[in-house]
Write a structure and sequence with these properties.
Layout (H helix, E strand, L loop, with lengths): L1 H12 L3 H5 L7 E5 L2 E4 H17 L7 H24 L6 H14 L4 H10 L4 H25 L4 H10 L5 E11 L6 H19 L4 H8 L10 E6 L5 H8 L10 E3 L2 E12 L3 E13 L6 H16 L4 H8 L15 E2 L5 H9 L9 E2 L3 E14 L1 H32 L2 E3 L6
Antiparallel strand pairs: 1-2, 1-11, 3-4, 3-6, 5-6, 7-8, 7-10, 9-10
Length: 426
């Protein structure tokens, strides 16, 4: 043992003097956010992910100091929201995170293992990716709670909204840049915001890419996505904005407009007509449940007996009335009436999609038990009118929610203790 210790000591003594004279800085605290901190490593990792996303989107990168500040601001806001959510008792389980990750992998045509391999190949720490997913779920629930507590929509509001937006059947693909303003800005704050938004618009007019300007200057929640807002129905936008967009061509940028949270520049990416065509089906159903009273083998034997009778020419409706455990449809011969195809999921939907009108399926098993489905007919219906009213209600709710969430975030940041411990220029 003493011999091994001497050998180790000799190795240490033989190390170059520079090894002892210049200790490496492994990490450092950049910002204190209430009781939490942001480390240099967190900022570096977040920047790496943002740069990767922007390059994937072919969005030009802003100057490094601008990007650094934008990413740091986002980290601070994330910390504050997660802290408030946890104080409010909001939790996200590991199972929910795993489900979300599986969803991300599936949307990209990958397994979770392949997703992890792809992320790590791009330099993204997988544990950091998981934490980001958890934070997104937590923050989403916090914002939903804020909105639910303060947002209500009445029938009269919907009627008025539809009257005001009568004849509007367009959808707009938008991007935006936000220069935020407090609820009651001082003349100096308002003037500074106007000067900034005009400066940004001038840079765009001189050739700066809109997405690059959004990443560099926008204070909106989609800044690091190039300001992309996706498709928005006209019914979800303020009338003044719709009037302006209707006169714009794809690719054009609006004059500065006042909206929720401050001043906006809006880019019209594309326009299309809104229409909501729904595929509907009219099925019949026989179910034999597997439960405490009926074992799997017994249920299978019963469904096979029913299936045999169908093949012998017995009436589907009569068999459903006699044998089906689906209480909602058994009394009417298994008739489930017309329903949107998307209202069914899993094996039931998969089975119905393969049937032609008049055909019935072979028995198949789900978590409820054994089923036989019959397709009576299928059709497509224009549900635009119903959909428009639903969208109007959602638009009013989202508009109110956006205003309330922006106010909440502004107040959260204003009241928070945030202390910068390092000059990022160093």
């Amino acid at each position: 043992m003493k011999s091994i210790a001497r050998q180790l000591l000799l190795v240490l003594l033989l190390l170059p003097l520079s090894t002892w004279a210049k200790p490496q800085l492994l990490d450092r605290i950049l910002v204190q956010v209430e009781e939490d901190i942001i480390l240099q490593s967190e900022l570096d990792q977040a920047k790496k992910e943002v740069v990767l996303r922007l390059k994937t989107q072919n969005t030009p990168l802003p100057p490094d100091e601008v990007l650094t500040q934008q990413v740091l601001d986002q980290l601070i806001n994330t910390k504050l929201q997660v802290q408030r959510a946890e104080m409010s008792g909001i939790r996200v389980s590991n199972e929910e995170v795993d489900k979300a990750v599986r969803g991300v992998a599936k949307r990209n045509g990958l397994t979770v293992a392949q997703l992890r391999q792809a992320l790590e190949a791009d330099g993204v720490n997988f544990n950091h990716f998981l934490q980001n997913i958890r934070n997104e779920l937590i923050i989403g629930r916090l914002r939903q709670r804020v909105a639910r507590a303060k947002v209500d929509v009445t029938d009269s509001e919907i009627d008025l909204f539809l009257e005001q937006h009568k004849g509007q059947d367009e959808e707009f693909h938008l991007a935006h840049i936000l220069v935020s303003l407090p609820g009651n800005p001082s003349p100096e704050e308002a003037r500074a915001a106007v000067e900034k938004i005009q400066m940004i618009r001038q840079k765009i007019a001189e050739g700066m890419d809109f997405a690059e300007a959004a990443v560099s200057y926008s204070q909106g929640q989609t800044a690091l996505k190039g300001g992309d807002l996706g498709w928005r129905p006209a019914s979800k936008l303020p009338q003044s904005m719709v009037d302006q967009l209707s006169k714009m061509k794809a690719g054009e940028v609006s004059e500065p407009v006042r909206g929720p949270g401050g001043l906006h520049l809006i880019k019209l990416v594309e326009t299309r007509k809104a229409q909501h065509i729904v595929k509907e089906i009219h099925p019949q159903h026989i179910l034999v449940k597997v439960d405490d009273l009926t074992s799997g083998d017994e249920a299978y034997s019963q469904i096979q007996n029913i299936y045999q009778q169908l093949q012998e020419g017995k009436d589907f409706a009569e068999l459903a009335k006699k044998f089906s455990d689906d209480k909602s449809s058994a009394s009417v011969g298994g008739d489930m009436d017309w329903q949107p195809l998307e209202s069914f999921g899993g094996k039931v939907r998969e089975t119905l999609e393969k049937l032609q009108p008049g055909e019935y399926s072979e028995p198949f098993r789900t978590s409820l038990g054994w089923h036989i489905m019959k397709l009576l007919d299928r059709r497509e219906r224009d549900r635009t009118q119903d959909f428009t009213r639903s969208q109007a209600m959602q638009a009013i709710r989202e508009r109110k929610a956006e205003y309330e969430v922006e106010n909440f975030l502004r107040q959260l940041r204003d009241e928070a203790y945030v202390r910068y411990l390092v000059d990022l220029g160093q």
